[in-house]
From TrEMBL:
Protein name: Uncharacterized protein
Domain of life: Eukaryota
Signal peptide: 1-19
Start-end of Acidic residues biased regions: 627-637
Ranges for region Disordered: 605-637
Length: 637
């Protein structure tokens, strides 16, 4: 994760950043292919305007991290690939890749930063070529090992016909599961739902227009500051609204409600037509109800971003969110004319609206919004119920793979029944084993469901008697240690299939949390750190947050050396912008010589070169990905 942070911050230098990043990657490849590590990485020959573009501390990064990571990754049985693309008008497009796997010695789930690809086009085909070429260069064989592919909802990633995931599945493992990032699914589901209702579309326009009032005018911001002071409200501005960026819609609605009173008062002197929108009772009712719905979804999204949470809790989290929505707006047949029932309706925001109206004598809101009761409360209540029901349905449709994920979570000790008698029943876990056999039977080598059930019957009793009170992460680690030969690493024949399935279960559990955090940090940095940053700012960020606690691990001397190198680099004049194309001259590693994919890669390492045929770029360097959640069609479902 720290590596991703570091690379994203460095990317503020745009083309220069990619120049020495490519040099760093080439250094990693040199080291990864070397039979003996001498401690010194040969930096490839490259043409730069300033040789300081390759600072010394990058060598230490590669020395202490990359060699061990690549050697481990070549030994694992299965791994998960996580990928996210990021775009900005001020920074060149790229895609970041993580690899999740189970450590072959400690059985701990590990996540490594795998690469950062420069992109100049938008097709799954070019993305596929880029990823496959990178795997080949690093000497990693993905056939029947790449079990999970996790990304956002971009069509270039998840298209059922031409997406990167579909191509990886067809090429390497037909049982590979394509997992859509769960924190991307929630806003996509809500956006799909709200697009069906004109009232919600109107709210989206209100959010966009409210943000636009203060976007480019300092005078309007100053005037609004005076208005907030009059109402004794802390000065803030409406937040920018994004339809599919997770948490964005909910935060925008909550901020607008928080500033509603001074904002309406301010609009009276700026845009009288827009003020009328806030005077419609139906608009306010839907706005406050949608705020309550989005609070539930944002809480759900935040819970899914915890550091460690098993997929066994996925359905639990979803059910709790759906129950909360039903309790607020669907299940109760409340009469809003009754004060007692009125107080039970909705969440905190709709209660605020209805409570304020009930206390007002002239039907006004905060004595400043002259309400126009265009619709009755019963009509608005019925409409909100329709929105809530549709929202639940749209979110459920976004989790088509929950059957497979839930089946793997049958290993979670926390899900076991309370009694051993229930455990010993033949039908316990049979449905999950059937799903696992259908999807992974060929991969793990089991020929019949009976063979899998035979091991499962033994395993579930052991779990109940020995590992019942531990979390799934501890259980997987301890079980592997107990039932594998520590010298050879060979699994116990009695639990061969179960050990393989536990590996899959463990990497998918860990992959999700890192996916959300990786995507979130990548997008946040791109949003808030656009343009070029001062050299000192970048230096401070890298030293205090990334290099210090990351490099060298427990080796204090190495860590101090890394920090010293970083500080030295930060005090220099800083790299100059490369105006000429950066040309890499690096021979292919020995392990890739016989690879059909890499036959012509040496001639294609011209980073600044252009190709007449877009489809003939094996490295995918001419690929541009637009954030599919917003711009590309999402036909993967």
């Amino acid at each position: 994760m720290a590596n991703l942070f570091m690379m994203c911050v460095i990317l503020a230098y745009e083309n220069v950043a990619f120049a020495f990043y490519e040099a760093w990657i080439q250094a990693e490849l040199c080291m990864g292919s070397a039979s003996e590590h001498t401690g010194e990485i040969p930096i490839p020959q490259a043409h730069y305007d300033d040789r300081r573009l390759v600072p010394k501390f990058l060598k230490y990064v590669a020395n202490c991290l990359i060699l061990d990571q690549l050697s481990l990754l070549r030994r694992v049985n299965y791994f998960t690939m996580l990928i996210d693309e990021c775009t900005s008008r001020s920074i060149v497009s790229c895609a970041a890749i993580y690899i999740c796997f189970q450590h072959p010695d400690t059985f701990e789930s590990s996540v490594i930063f795998f690469g950062l690809f420069k992109l100049h086009g938008g097709s799954g085909k070019l993305l596929y070529r880029s990823v496959v070429s990178w795997l080949a260069l690093l000497g990693i064989e993905p056939t029947r090992r790449l079990m999970f592919f996790i990304s956002d909802g971009a069509s270039a990633m998840r298209s059922v016909r031409t997406g990167l995931g579909k191509r990886l599945r067809d090429s390497f493992c037909e049982a590979m599961v394509m997992i859509h990032c769960v924190c991307h699914r929630l806003p996509l589901g809500s956006a799909e739902c709200f697009a069906m209702f004109p009232e919600c579309i109107a709210i989206d326009k209100i959010l966009t227009k409210s943000y636009g009032f203060f976007k480019k005018s300092h005078a309007q911001r100053d005037n609004f500051r005076e208005m907030t002071d009059e109402f004794d409200i802390k000065y803030k501005l409406p937040k920018r609204f994004h339809k599919v960026r997770w948490l964005s819609r909910g935060q925008s609605v909550e901020r607008l409600i928080e500033l509603l009173v001074p904002f309406v008062a301010y609009l009276r002197s700026v845009d009288e037509n827009f003020v009328k929108t806030f005077e419609n009772f139906s608009t306010l009712f839907i706005l406050f109800a949608v705020a309550d719905l989005l609070v539930v979804l944002n809480v759900l999204s935040s819970r899914m971003q915890s550091t460690k949470w098993p997929f066994s809790n996925l359905s639990v989290f979803l059910d709790e969110a759906f129950d909360s929505i039903n309790e607020m707006f669907v299940t109760p047949a409340l009469d809003l004319s009754d004060p007692e029932q009125r107080a039970k309706y909705g969440g905190k925001y709709i209660k605020l609206l209805l409570g304020t109206i009930a206390k007002s004598e002239n039907g006004s809101y905060y004595d400043d919004i002259r309400l126009n009761f265009d619709k009755s409360e019963d009509e608005c209540q019925h409409r909100v119920m329709e929105i809530a029901i549709m929202l639940i349905m749209c979110i459920k449709d976004r989790f088509p793979d929950i059957e497979i994920l839930e089946a793997l979570c049958v290993f979670d000790p926390a899900r076991l029944p309370d009694s051993l008698e229930t455990i010993e029943k033949d039908n316990y876990g049979k449905e999950a084993m059937h799903v696992i056999f259908e999807h992974y039977g060929d991969v793990i080598g089991v020929e019949t469901l009976a063979e899998l059930m035979e091991q499962w019957i033994k395993l579930r009793k052991i779990v109940f008697c020995t590992y019942r009170n531990v979390d799934i992460f501890t259980f997987v680690r301890r079980f592997h240690h107990a039932f594998t030969h520590q010298a050879t690493g060979a699994p116990d024949p009695k639990y061969t299939y179960m050990l393989l399935l536990l590996e899959l279960c463990n990497i998918i559990v860990m992959a999700n949390a890192h996916t959300e955090r990786g995507f979130a940090h990548l997008n946040d940095i791109w949003t808030h750190q656009r343009g070029r940053l001062a050299v000192r700012t970048i230096n401070d960020v890298m030293v205090t947050k990334f290099l210090g606690p990351t490099l060298g691990g427990e080796n204090e001397a190495l860590r101090a050396l890394c920090i010293s190198a970083a500080r030295h680099w930060g005090t220099q004049r800083g790299p100059q912008i490369c105006r000429e194309p950066v040309v890499m001259h690096q021979p292919l590693p020995e392990f890739a010589e016989d690879s059909e994919i890499c036959e012509d890669l040496e001639d294609e390492m011209l980073v600044g070169s252009s190709s007449s045929d877009e489809d003939e770029d094996p490295l995918g360097l001419e690929t541009v990905i637009v954030d599919g959640d917003e711009y590309a069609s999402d036909d993967s479902e």
